What does this fold into?
Amino acid sequence: MRGPESRVAGERRGKRTATGPVPERAFLVGIEYRSRARSSAPARSGSLTAGAQAARDTSAPATTKASSTPEFSAEESLQELRSLALSAGAIVAGEFLQHRDRPDPATLIGKGKLEEIAGAAASVSADLILFDHDLTASQQRNIERVVDTRVIDRTQLILDIFAKHARTREGQLQVELAQLEYLLPRLGGRGIEMSQLGGGIGTRGPGETQLETDRRKIYRRIRHVKEQIENVRRVRAQQRQRRESVPVATVALVGYTNAGKSTLFNALTSAAVLESPRMFATLDPTIRAITLPSKRKALLSDTVGFIRNLPHTLVTAFRATLEEVQRAALILQVSDASSPISSEQDAQVEKVLKELEAEKKTRLRIMNKIDLLPPVQRESLRDDAKTVHVSAAKGIGMSTLLDRIDQTLAEDPVSRVKLRIPQKEGKALSLLEARSRIYSRAYRDGLVELEADAPQSLMRKLLAWIVD
It folds into this structure.
């Protein structure tokens, strides 16, 4: 039975304005378990809005020595959920942070607290409740019965954002596969549409329930989508094989979502990839060529951002895209230097790289957004062999970064060479001009004597004119 608040929310979801659909009002629910708090950094006290303050559990969690792996506090995690909700196009109408000793198997946070959340969400006319936690199918159903409002967990929210931002056919296929695999275990108990096809005298006996029919359809669709993604992987592998036949290294940008990867990609390649402060603005992979200071060419790949507890279905579905990370000669790990939780974000990136079996790849750390730091802190920053500080938005540190990439890449190595090339060999001279860094040039007896830094691939073409 739907209450009046749910009917109002349903009517509002169907309305549109001159500029588009009316944004849904989301009520956020964060959860912190005290056992987790004891094994990680203590959580800072948060605030509840829109009538939820009275429902907050004010007991302070016990804390001991912090874990060696940085962890998000409950408030930081709730802040991230807020950013995800905004990226999905919702308006945050209220928040609730619950502290518990352990999860409730049936409702995650307990029926009493759920009733308080239902009242707080109704008071701000929330259309849906977003949980900063993954819910089982039974938990989601039990919670919806109590709150009488649509309930979405964190994984479903991320899948929705991915579906919204996918533009290429490949991206859409990968998102659809992840959504189908998420939906499959949650078909049961979805209401009358999942009941048996018939009932009563003359209809009993062997037959197929609607639930089984729907499962069969989803399995069939999953097989079809996987076949299409396999075709994408085959085409991508052929393209990669053609690229690898030429000595051009691939450099992959990785990092936490909203770390500024796309802005850095555009700054290095002069591309026009979408730059947005919203999470997961980049979903479809883009590859562009860049010219390094040594005149070598490299391919730069922009990838989807990582996030805390990235759903395994997404990692699996996007493996065709993330193979660029696995096959890259160099990984540029981009971090937000201005973020107070930069170390926690980097720890999550490390987890995803391990899952991709790419944690041992050669890596260069890029600390981005230094323009947002206070001047005194910015002036104290120092680059080293593994770290470069930049501001992609302001163009700060780009030449240093290109130099460091050039020094780190081992493919098609560059070495100093002396050449004597006849002046009539215009093609060879043009090639040397375009693909090497020339330090000296002299003209004698119809020859051009040069000293240059040139890659091996070029030296093989000019072997006849190299001076020992």
Summary: DSSP finds 16 helices and 16 strands in the chain.
